[in-house]
Amino acid sequence: MSRIIITLFILLFSFKGFASYILIPMDAEGQAEHLKAYGITYWVLEKQMKAKWLLNYRGGSFLLPDTEAIRKECQIRGVSFEVMSDSQTNQILEEISSPSQNMEAVVLEKAPKIAVYSPKGNQPWDDAVTMVLTYAEIPYTTIYDEEVLTDQLLLYDWLHLHHEDFTGQYGKFYRAYRTAPWYIEQKREAEALAARLGYSKVSEEKRDVALKIRDYVIGGGFMFAMCSATDSFDIALAAEGVDICEPMFDGDPSESGYQSKIDYNRTFAFKDFTLERSPNVYEFSSIDVTNTRKVNRNTDYFTLMDYSAKWDPIPCMLVQNHTALVKGFMGQTTAFNPNEVKSTVLVMGENKSNGEARYIHGIRGKGFFTFYGGHDPEDYQHRVGDAKTELALHPNSPGYRLILNNVLFPAAKKKKQKT
Question: Does residue 315 share a domain with residue 173?
Fold first, then answer.
């Protein structure tokens, strides 16, 4: 009998010694592949398992169930992981739950269905979000105007807006590229698509697309936009029913005095901006600070804000990183004039020395939106025709991590924001 008791005692402690969880560290020292780590977490959610996002713990680490399949997947993708016993896990969770610690464990429940709004023929490397989703091995569906106008956004939890021009001015590329074959072809394709969808003007079709996206967010969707999709989206909403396009864009003159007819109440993020009237200026409005910034490339960084993980988990999720200082990068819309950002919108990343808002977030109806200035976090001044960024050379990119924070955000079991 004593031998049986001793054997059972040994077995009991042996089982307790088995690992129950896998920690995916996200600090600078502990993770070899930050970007692919998000893909592992998404993959776990796809397998109908839950995960925990440990806000402010070692750079925003992930706690996953321990299975042989997850270990193997981490090894295949080169993602660093640590095997944790029950006692080790409980110790971490107790530390996180302490009122003295600015940390929180957020449950991730379900893999969000992701849509990328982008022209069908667009090259994947033209868009940072498409590139990082592919690199992280997170699946997505490409949609465009036809899908949006037929209410197919309802099939998705998260929507990214490619660097699009929702004003119908073809990206304001007129001066530099109006004779370029690619510009002529894109304009022709846009006009043909608008006609096929029953519109006489591209600007009118894009306006209705913007309105459908607005309704998607109000109804509870999550929207993320970069570069020119940020300000051109808000401009399209503010200019609803107003012709702001010059003849080379839509065939007839713009409305007289259209600036006074802009309705800022309709926008998501911006207020009091002045539209750029000239078709020869590569700019939409005063929202963007690209042409007025005087920043040395070697010192171009922006700072992420620090939020309470327990009281403000939403912005805290969106700024998780292994550094609070992120390398800057340019785009058609590089950064936002903070004086033209609505007071209801959170500025989560800013260049204080130059007075720029780089990364902003807000609520609209039941949904959320995030605007991120710039084109490619690892290509400082991306130009038309530049080679694609190889993310294998930047597996720990802080700038790209901000994008992936937004991708996982809809998977979180939401807590009511308290401030």
Answer: yes
pLDDT of residue 120: 79
pTM comes to 0.92
Structure tokens at 59: 């750079």
Look up residue 190 and give its two tokens. 């846009």
Residue 245 in domain: yes
Structure letter (DSSP) for residue 3: H
43 contacts 74 by C-beta, under 8 angstroms: no
What DSSP state is assigned to residue 366?
Answer: T
Please report which helix (H) or strand (E) contains residue 34, including its range: helix 34-46
> How far, in Å, CA of 205 to CA of 297, rounded?
38
How many other C-beta atoms lie within 10 A of the C-beta of residue 197? Answer: 15
296 with 348, same domain: the answer is: yes
Closest CA to 38 of 172, 140, 164: 140
Of residues 117, 149, 152, the one with CA closest to residue 228:
117
Check pLDDT > 90 for residue 310: yes
Three-state DSSP class for 22? strand
| Domain interval for residue 102 | 2-108
